[in-house]
Automatic annotation (TrEMBL):
The lineage of its organism: Eukaryota, Viridiplantae, Streptophyta, Embryophyta, Tracheophyta. Essential component of the vacuolar proton pump (V-ATPase), a multimeric enzyme that catalyzes the translocation of protons across the membranes. Required for assembly and activity of the V-ATPase. Residues 99-126 form a coiled coil. This is V-type proton ATPase subunit a. One of its GO terms (cellular component) is vacuolar proton-transporting V-type ATPase, V0 domain. It comes from Protea cynaroides. InterPro entries: V-ATPase_116kDa_su (IPR002490), V-type_ATPase_116kDa_su_euka (IPR026028).
């Protein structure tokens, strides 16, 4: 035991020791002190005002001001994006400004931009109206000229043939009556011209026809230019129309329909001279407005350019200020002493740094009173904090996705860094596919500085975050690929010649005649001659299945051993004697014995049936083993192991609850007396630790909990060992899929003497390899390895009922406010 005590501590095995501290900060140095703490990022504040709403807190007005400034900055960002301006490569240096000056500056910029936008919208609306008027004048003048020529021809025809017949006037249509001289000219044929979206023209014409009961003449022509729609804020295709009608009632109906459809009506004079004169005026005004609009856009872009160079700095500053005031709102304000009282957690190793920055804050703010920083005792459990780097961070996130470690319990990441990519590779083993994964991982690692500063998509962000996980998975896949001797399912004589040859020199088909061994065993991995032999599948199945059981037993034993180190670290001898010891005995009496038999069978080359041995170990432990005997005195050994496994079950179940009940009764009924410890003694004995909170003992609950835990372990020992057979199943599936794609696609296509068929086969093989084997199979093996660690490994020792250390840090603030 002294050997383990003398070993140096591992950084990631236990979380950092935490301490609960209290800060008493004078008001004049509070803002600067919290800012310095945010820069350091090693102090988690406790909310002392959680019973108050956000509007009842001390610094609510400052938070509102920061929120308003954030809104203005988002408005500037939207305007810059609409203008298509890019931030400068090197932002211009600007002297530091305080919050009040920045607030005034932002308000001036916003009012200037709002005024320019309003003027620009008015000018744009006027420009669009004039543009539409120009197109209506151009198209409607053509309609009117054709209508007048048509009227002259009709007049001649009517004079010659129809005006002698008085009854025709009563029977004529509206349009013909309006074109006649005489009494009908008193009302006259009238028209309305305008422009409407092309998508509405058919419905518009149909409604006009129904509203006037067919007493109108509709003419249309497509506009030559696209026009900006003020509602949709995009250019749309429009159509110019002219409606001929008669009567004031029809005019009212048509105008209402035009208004309902969003059509813009423009007056067009019938006189051609006036039309030309108005067209010239419109064109001149359009030219002037175009020049004015361009000047306004240049002026607006110039104003935005002066903002864009400072926008990032202003955004960071406002975000930090808002975070500082949000944190100050978590502190308790003492009106009488004019100070702020804060409490929180920090790592013990960070105490000197925090004290140093608090002293610096006092000096920089010219405060006459220093900041008081002292350690307190806490009832609740401390948060969990692991110091990770860019390599271990992704593995820590994988473990934390299952649950955050309890304070200072053993962290699975120390072992997961190796076991996770290795178990993935056992299922994915192929050094060709591993090289493809390695290239992708190396690209992500080589470009990590560039990619880390960019905004990536969800898939790329996930792949980039786990780039080192992918790197190790690829390296272990190459290693396991050499073990399986598979390169895209093709074996190679990488490490020498095969140890097997055909049974006789005339054989040509290894599938039918079999192989014989004629030289030393292949030095590394599976002999390439197994590929294609009739015993290939039985051999590889036996190898991978037994290998999976060995890996499973080894990893689950590691989990049980880590439970011992947890119990030893927390000085819980009860858990060592009545939980760790019976678990080790039970598990290794059955499955440790099975692993031992597998190793002995491999070393001796025995033909013993391990299924028969394990089954009859339970059904008939006293029967003779016969040919299945692998050890001397194996039968009495099996009886002993079976008895130990049976004894271990009640050993796990009953002693611990009974001893806990006995200790409780002795403690609270005065049979034994212990010295009461003060908070100072507790702190001296274990600095930074949380004071244990004793709850009322309930024997029935403890017994039921221990019963559930024991039954879960006993049944889980069987199911978890069987669960590791997924290593065999997925490895076999990956190998067989690779073989199918290689033999049935690539080799089959290469048998044709046609370049197109060969290229098609190569394309199908590349597509299947990339999307099925390198993407789907990678994801499948990733998830199965995740399951083996979460369920089979970590449930042996990992409580995962802690909570993360979330310090106040400017580095962890979100990039953009919601």
């Amino acid at each position: 035991m002294e050997f383990f005590d003398n070993l140096p501590a591992m950084d990631l095995l236990r979380s950092e020791k935490m301490t609960f501290v209290q800060l008493i900060i004078p008001v004049e140095s509070a803002h600067r002190a919290i800012s310095y703490v945010g820069e350091l990022g090693l102090l988690q504040f406790k909310d002392l005002n959680d019973d108050k709403s956000p509007f009842q807190r001390t610094f609510v007005n400052q938070v509102k001001r920061c929120g308003e400034m954030s809104r203005k900055l988002r408005f500037f960002r939207d305007q810059i994006n609409k203008a298509g301006l890019l931030p400068p490569a090197r932002p211009t240096l600007q002297p530091d400004t305080d919050l009040e000056q920045l607030e005034i500056q932002l308000a001036e910029h916003e009012s200037e931009l709002v005024e320019m936008n309003a003027n620009g919208e008015k000018l744009r609306q006027t420009y669009n109206e004039l543009l539409e008027f120009k197109m209506v004048l151009q198209k409607a003048s053509g309609f009117l000229v054709s209508a007048q020529s048509h009227t002259i021809a009709e007049d001649r025809e009517l004079e010659e043939n129809l005006y002698l017949n008085n009854d025709y006037i009563e029977r004529g249509s509206l349009l013909e009556q309006e074109m006649q001289p005489g009494p009908s000219n008193q009302a006259g044929l009238r028209f309305i011209s305008g422009i409407i979206c092309k998508s509405k023209i058919l419905r518009f014409e149909r409604i006009l026809f129904r509203a006037t009961r067919g007493n109108m003449y509709f003419n249309q022509a497509p506009a030559e230019e696209y026009v900006m729609d003020p509602v949709l804020a995009e250019k749309v295709e429009k159509t110019v129309f002219v409606v001929f009608f008669s009567g004031e009632q029809a005019r009212t109906k048509i105008l209402k329909i035009c208004d309902a459809f969003g059509a813009n009506c423009y007056p067009v004079p019938e006189d051609i001279t006036k039309q030309r004169q108005i067209t010239q005026e419109v064109l001149s005004r359009l030219s002037e407005l175009g020049i004015t609009l361009d000047a306004g856009i240049r002026h607006r872009n110039k104003a935005l350019s002066s903002i864009v160079s400072h926008l990032k700095k202003w955004t960071v500053m406002v975000r930090k200020e808002k975070a500082v005031y949000d944190t100050l709102n978590m502190l308790n304000f003492d009106v009488t002493k004019k100070c702020l009282v804060g409490e929180g957690w920090c790592p013990i190793i960070a105490q000197p740094q925090i004290q140093e920055i608090l002293q610096r804050a006092t000096f920089d703010s010219n405060s006459q009173v220093g900041i008081i920083f002292h350690v307190m005792d806490a009832v609740e459990s401390p948060p969990t904090y692991f110091r990770t780097n860019k390599f271990t961070h992704a593995f820590q996130e994988i473990v934390d996705a299952y649950g955050v470690a309890r304070y200072q319990e053993a962290n699975p990441v120390v072992y997961t860094v190796i076991t996770y990519p290795f178990l993935f590779a056992v299922m994915f083993g192929d050094w060709g596919h591993g090289i493809c994964l390695l290239l992708g991982a190396l690209i992500l690692v080589a470009r990590e500085r560039r990619l880390g500063s960019q905004k990536l998509g969800s898939f790329m962000e996930l792949a980039f975050g786990g780039r080192y996980v992918l790197l190790l998975m690829a390296l272990f896949s190459i290693y396991c690929g050499f073990i399986y001797n598979e390169f895209f399912s093709v074996p190679f004589h990488t490490f020498g010649e095969t140890a097997y040859k055909c049974r006789d020199p005339t054989c040509s088909d290894a599938r039918s005649t079999g192989l014989i061994k004629y030289r030393d065993t292949y030095p590394f991995g599976v002999d390439p001659s197994w590929r294609g032999s009739r015993s290939e599948l039985p051999f590889l199945n036996s190898l991978k299945m037994k290998m999976s059981i060995l890996f499973g037993v080894a990893q689950m034993n590691l989990g049980i051993i880590l439970s011992y180190f947890n119990a030893r670290f927390f000085s819980s001898s009860l858990d060592i004697r009545h939980q760790f010891v019976p678990q080790m005995i039970f598990f290794n009496s059955l499955f440790g014995y099975l692993a031992l038999l597998i190793v002995i069978k491999w070393c001796t080359g025995s033909q013993a049936d391990l299924y028969h041995v394990m089954i009859y170990m339970f059904l008939s432990p006293t029967d003779d083993l016969g040919d299945n005997q692998l050890l001397w005195a194996q039968r009495p050994l099996q009886i002993l192991l079976l008895l130990l496994a049976i004894v271990a079950v009640p050993w796990m179940l009953f002693p611990k609850p009974l001893i806990l009940r006995k200790n409780y009764l002795e403690r609270f009924q005065g049979r034994t007396y212990g010295r009461l410890g003060t908070s100072e003694m507790d702190l001296d004995a274990e600095p930074g630790s949380a004071r244990q909170h004793h709850e009322e003992f309930n024997f029935s609950e403890v017994l039921v909990h221990q019963m559930i835990h024991s039954i879960e372990f006993v049944l889980g020992a069987v199911s978890n060992t069987a669960s590791y057979l997924r290593l065999w199943a997925l490895s076999l599936a990956h190998s067989e899929l690779s073989t199918v794609f290689y033999e049935k696609v690539l080799v089959l296509a290469w048998g044709f003497d046609n370049i197109l068929i060969r290229l098609a086969g190569l394309a199908v093989f590349a597509f299947a390899t990339a999307f099925i084997l390198l993407m789907m199979e990678t994801l499948s093996a990733f998830l199965h390895a995740l399951r083996l660690h979460w369920v089979e490994f970590m449930n042996k020792f990992y409580f995962a009922d802690g909570y993360k250390f979330k310090p106040f840090s400017f580095a962890s603030l979100p990039e953009e406010d919601d």
